[in-house]
């Protein structure tokens, strides 16, 4: 007996695929704006009541557990400016990931926004942030993976960064962990 696997339905003419910052293909401005709006929503939602060095350790260990279970080759970093609160390089991560961590962290700290959001906003109207002569690519990287740790009523107090996956996956991995962490902090408040 032959089992037939149905073909996936063709996308409808009105369906818009989500913007992919790593794609070399031309993508629509509405898709870009939609992803920007989604990340801005994450920023509004992922707000903590407080954040201590103990919290940095707990969040870092949560990220390590998630990455280990999934066998992800990532570097994980949590810092307050240059003060490293947590850092690990898991199997498969490379020295290049350390460079990306530093540059993406600086970007999120400098703009007080997720590094992916900085890069996406730089694409509005065409081009990229890196196209601007004033943008220092030796120090900053507007690529996904660094997300500010926001405390309600205070603002950004730290940055959590992941490097080792495609930039959108780095971003989504950090958001998944922060979502879980914010939920757990709310339950223990």
Given as residue ranges, the uncertain stretches (5+ residues, pLDDT < 50) are 1-14
- The best one-word shape is globular
Beta-strand percent range: 15-25%
The largest β sheet comes out as: 5 strands, mixed
Total strands: the figure is 5
N-to-C span: 58 Å
What's the Cα radius of gyration? 18 Å
Mean pLDDT: 89
Order of strands in the sheet with most strands: 1-4-5-2-3
Q: Roughly what percent helix?
A: 40-55%
Number of helices: 5
Structural class: alpha+beta
SSE sequence, one letter per element: HEHEEHHEEH
Descriptive overview:
- The protein has 189 residues and is an alpha+beta fold.
- The chain contains five helices and five strands, in the order H-E-H-E-E-H-H-E-E-H.
- A five-stranded mixed β-sheet has the order 1-4-5-2-3.
- The chain starts with 28 loop residues before the first helix and ends with a helix.
- The N terminus is likely disordered.
What's the structural blueprint in terms of helices and strands?
Layout: H1 29-45, E1 47-48, H2 53-70, E2 75-80, E3 83-89, H3 95-111, H4 115-121, E4 146-151, E5 155-163, H5 167-188
Parallel strand pairs: 1-4
Antiparallel strand pairs: 2-3, 2-5, 4-5
Helix pairs in contact: 1-4, 2-5
Short description:
It is globular and about 45 Å long. It is built from five helices and five strands. The chain has 189 residues and is an alpha+beta fold.
Any key phrases for this structure?
single chain; alpha+beta; 189 residues; five-stranded mixed sheet
């Amino acid at each position: 007996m032959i089992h037939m696997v149905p073909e996936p339905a063709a996308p409808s003419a009105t369906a818009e695929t989500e913007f992919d910052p790593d794609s070399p293909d031309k993508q629509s401005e509405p898709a870009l704006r939609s992803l920007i709006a989604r990340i801005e929503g994450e920023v509004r939602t992922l707000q903590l009541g407080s954040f201590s060095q103990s919290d940095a350790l707990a969040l870092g260990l949560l990220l390590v557990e998630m990455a280990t279970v999934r066998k992800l080759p990532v570097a994980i970093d949590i810092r307050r400016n240059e003060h490293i609160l947590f850092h690990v390089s898991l199997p498969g991560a490379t020295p290049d990931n350390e460079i990306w961590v530093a540059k993406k962290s600086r970007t999120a700290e400098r703009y007080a926004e997720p590094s992916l959001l900085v890069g996406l906003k730089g694409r509005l109207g065409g081009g990229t942030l890196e196209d601007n002569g004033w943008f220092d690519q030796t120090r900053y990287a507007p690529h996904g993976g660094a997300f500010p740790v926001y405390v309600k009523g205070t603002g950004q107090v730290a940055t959590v960064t992941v490097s080792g996956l495609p930039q959108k996956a780095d971003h989504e991995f950090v958001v998944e962990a922060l979502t879980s962490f914010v939920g757990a902090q709310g339950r223990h408040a």
